Fold Peptide deformylase.
Amino acid sequence: MTQQDTDEQINDGNDGFVVDTEDCEARELAHRERGTARPITVVGNPVLHKECKDVTEFDEKLAALIDDMFASQKAAEGVGLAANQIGVDLKVFVYDCPDDDGVRHTGVVVNPVLEELPADQRHLDESNEGCLSVPTAYAELGRPDYAVVSGQDAQGNPIKVRGTGYFARCLQHETDHLYGYLYIDRLSKRDRKDALRQMEEGTPRYETVPNA
Ligand SMILES: [Zn+2]
């Protein structure tokens, strides 16, 4: 995302919500062509189980990290990726994910905070969820079907992102990562155990970081 794009995105009278549905193909491609895919950390790696550090420098290094994250997300066929999933202890996630209406959303959120929904807007959606850091496992998990995340873009401008359906699930899942939580941490003991068993039995289709 260029500075110019960003300015357009936040000044378009969209209630401060970023427009992340335009030029998805071109933006995603540009990021991943500049970046390098890195192996994915898996459950048990300490970087996944603690809160990541806030981003304070909105510089070239951050831009390069975001490019690598898009490249890694694509290589692993993910719809969202948090920085600690490639071993980087910083609050950044990227996404490329369809919503309830099949509309594609592509973007990045730095220092995300999930907004609390009023009780009357909390409708739980029970759907299957998976995670690149728990390869080959899936489990049903109830989550609100609408989510709003506030944070910053790659240049440090304040942004808000909202989503429905699968994309709402993605926004919650990725924000959780950056606070040290995996979706399996939200499962019952029994379902968590089952997910870990699925992981033991499967073979990921992408490169992972072996746990020490
Ligand atoms: Zn995940």
